[in-house]
Amino acid sequence: MQKEVITVAFVVLLLLVAVAKSEFNYTSTTSPDEGNIISGGFSFVNKAGGTWNHEHEDLWGVFRVYPQIKGSATRVDASTSAATLIKIIPSTRAVNPGESFTVDIAVTPNKPITEIKLDLCVEPSLIIINSVSHGAMFTENFACNIAAPEIGMVTINGLSAGEAVSTANTFATVHLTADSLKTGTSALHFSNVKVEGPKGEVSSDVNDGSVTIGQPPVFDTGYGTYPSIAGTHTGTIKPKRDIIVHALYTYSCSGTGGHSESVRIWDGTEIVADWKGYDGDWHTIQFSPHFVLLAGHIYHYCIRTGSYPEIIHEHAITNVYGTITCDGFADVNGRSYDDRIPAFRLEGEFMGAE
Question: Are strands 322-331 and 316-319 parallel, antiparallel or unpaired?
């Protein structure tokens, strides 16, 4: 009985000393057991995160774990991260020529922060910065300044309206548009980054991103609509410019596997290509070798589709790329129409001026 009283006394003394040294804050949930182990909640102030055993030398000069205090904890007012992290989400992105899209700037603080200021730079020949909207991190004091399009840069500034921010969140959403006639990869690059906290500047790291623009459309019908059904489309294409065709992309109805299963294009010489199945970019059929369509010439097409591709319910359409006409459409149920154009785009390169 006397030994148990002494043990408890040493436990209390040890905890008082440890707390006084600011090693940890302790909230007991159990009394010492037979192995002199205490369970409880520990917040380590001057320790990194991890499991810690507190060793103690008793009055008899015996060095032992007495008691053994274990805690898995994260430092108070700090993080295991060396710096506040600022990154692009998603870090890489593939878009079509002319496509509008967004990326987020996410911030994970390692210390409380009150202000972030940074520049985001893009390749101006490939990407246009349209606008920037605030995220949930700084909703009131938020501003941006988009430079001239040929510079390809936006300056973004967010300031806390009250308490410092310690929780990871979205700093900003950037609205962008890819060039409609070019392909290539643009970095999404941070520069002039400055992060402030209540006690001054906070160290920061950045993870840049990138956007890759695919082959540009050289002939594009545009999007179609429901009702949709698989079948065989025949008709003619008359491009406005000389084009080299690499691939055919089929627009599919949302949530479906709409695609083209086979493509034939001809004017004397016939070009044939087949679908490779639901593998990789299954919306696209590649032509190998590439072929040329000349401006003002009329070419015949036969496109057999599967699942639910988008369909333009018109007999003919003319746009900036040229004219496409429906000669006939036979659906899989045997019905025939003369006003069903498959929604697709030919991808490749332009030759010469319009």
Answer: antiparallel
Cβ-contact 159, 141 below 8 angstroms: yes
Q: How far is CA 41 from CA 10, 11, 37, 67, 70, in A?
A: 19, 15, 13, 15, 9
Domain ranges of the chain: 2-73, 84-213, 217-351
DSSP string, 52-108: ----EE-TTS-EE-SSEE--EE--TT--SSSSEEEEEESSEEEE-TT-EEEEEEEEE
Distance CA 187, CA 190 (A): 9
Domain topology for 217-351? Jelly Rolls (2.60.120)
Token code pair at residue 89: 């989400």
For the domain bounded by 84-213, which CATH number is listed? 2.60.40.680
pLDDT one-digit tens code per residue, 173-199: 999 999 887 878 899 999 999 999 998
CB 302 within 8 A of CB 215: no
Q: What is the pTM of this model?
A: 0.50
What are the tens digits of pLDDT across the range 106-164?
Answer: 999 999 999 999 999 999 999 999 999 999 999 889 999 999 989 999 999 999 988 89
